[in-house]
Amino acid sequence: MSGHRLLPTTEQDKIDIFKSCGVSSMEDLLIGIPKEVRLKSILSIGDGLSEIEIKRKISQILKNSRNKKSSLSFLGAGVYDHFCPAAINQLTLRGEFLTSYTPYQPEFSQGTLQALFEYQSMVSEIFGMEISNASHYDGSTSMAEAALMALRMKQNKKRILVSSGVHPEYVEVLKTYLTNLGVEVSLIPVNEKGTTSLSALKSLLADDVALVIAQSPNFMGCIEDMQEMSDLSHSKGSLFSANVTEPLSLALLKTPGEYDCDIATGEGQSFGLPQSFGGPYVGLFTTRLENVRQMPGRLCGETVDALGRKSFTLTLSTREQHIRREKATSNICTNQNLCALWASIWLALVGKEGFVELAEQNLAKSEYAKSELTKTGKAKIRYSNTNTFNEFVLELNTSSSEFIKKCVENNLAPGVSLQRFFPDDKNGLLIAVTEKKSREDIDLFVDLLKRFG
């Protein structure tokens, strides 16, 4: 009876599960969940309830819980709270798109292939680059794949320089990808303005550097001098790659193509994808046409069929499943098709003018927040002489962790404590202000800073 699929887990089942997982108790099994967010007692929902009664009870419990929809969030650090029109859910979640596997066969999948083609076209235009592939897992893996691509293009070089302004978690993913390849990864420090030190970059550049990676706006929200870094890299024979965690910024900033970037990667979550506790997202990957055969992933192209009719097909696919293993550029095995479709619909609905308007709103609202927060006298803007887009660091007079705790108790997430990434940085708070924040929202934040800052 214990194996019956409709019976709940028996005591023997639990013992078997613990044994399989190498733990001895439920407490050991849940060790990854912080104690402060766990229930302190058994969840009391009653015995023998019907489905309707259970749903009603759970709904009532959820009403008393604090969740993202009921909280005001200024969280960013690579994941942003952007507006998503209701039409996207209606279109993206249609049954024909929610498949367990991406349909590629051109005779059956013209709609899917055209969607990928449109996605690639829009990403290329936004980045100002000639070629975009059909997406990666997320921004961090796209950046790591850019490093692998550079090493293929510069086979006699075994060093990669990464700005300390790149998202710290992206850097960790990069190091993991390169662990067993004998490649040295060196960090370029940032200066007092919060941007990459150009003098340090000059001193680190040498003939053995295959690639220089920088991010703008960087992890601290500061806008980098990407043109100067690109020129310096090329002057030493190195490739230059841009990482863009907030691609909406490209509506107002120079695109990677405009500063002669070789490879440009990014995170597509900003294109309407829900934050969803960290994923799934979609990695953006672009390059120049001359580099296309070293590009990982898939490329969907437009062609004509035997009757001369316009059609779409996978033009280039360089993973080992499609070609000989020794010729493969990457073993990446997904193109995040549903997420790419989601991003494409968002971009199509927003349109060119809407894309720029959203970016302008992000900039204007974050500047208003910076001004009002500093007027309280309880904090100052770190890197105040450097331009930012929609994210900036607030230097609090108090501990950022303590301030966050007070704000959360008042149903507001004020930002990300930089102590999470840099243990000695106790007062730095990384704040993101998107188009979804109203003047009243920002004023509420300001009021909490006056009370708890």
Q: Largest sheet at a glance? A: 7 strands, mixed
What's the total helix number? 12
| SS-derived structural category | alpha/beta
> Which radius of gyration do the C-alpha atoms yield?
24 Å
Percent helix:
25-40%
Q: What string gives the helices and strands in order?
A: HHHEHHEHEHEHEHEEEEEHEEHEEEH
What name does the CATH topology of the largest domain carry? Aspartate Aminotransferase, domain 2
Number of domains: 2
Family: Belongs to the GcvP family. N-terminal subunit subfamily.
Subunit structure: The glycine cleavage system is composed of four proteins: P, T, L and H. In this organism, the P 'protein' is a heterodimer of two subunits.
GO biological process, one term: nucleoside metabolic process
Keywords: Oxidoreductase
